[in-house]
Write a structure and sequence with these properties.
- It contains four helices and no strands.
- With 103 residues, it is an all-alpha fold.
- Helix 2 packs across helix 3 and helix 3 runs antiparallel to helix 4.
- The longest helix has 28 residues.
- It is elongated.
Length: 103
């Protein structure tokens, strides 16, 4: 139980906070960089930064649901896969966004 909680906390830190904060910094404060993801760009154009946060929250909740279904079915891939994948994506995009912010 402790390991799973830590894994979701890492996911929240990298994907939920790191990626969102650095993406907001790029979209809001960088004239030379724009959002590359078409879905996110459309959501930001339509709903502002709340569109970005909403899509990230939706992805997080979908992965949480898949993970809970994996726990119910005793499937370790479905249980550990979603938070691990989101944490890796979050770490990569956070690092990439920081690189873009620094020039």
């Amino acid at each position: 139980m402790i390991y799973e909680t830590r894994l979701w906390l890492v996911t929240l830190a990298t994907y939920g906070v790191g990626d969102i904060v650095t993406t907001i910094a790029l979209v809001g404060f960088s004239a030379s960089v724009s959002e590359a993801n078409t879905l996110l760009r459309t959501a930001i154009d339509a709903f502002g930064l709340w569109g970005l946060v909403g899509l990230k929250l939706l992805a997080f909740l979908v992965c949480l649901g898949i993970s809970l279904a994996g726990a119910r079915d005793a499937d370790p891939l479905l249980y550990y896969g979603p938070p691990t994948t989101l944490a890796l994506v979050g770490a990569f995009t956070t690092a990439y966004n920081v690189r873009l912010l620094l020039g």
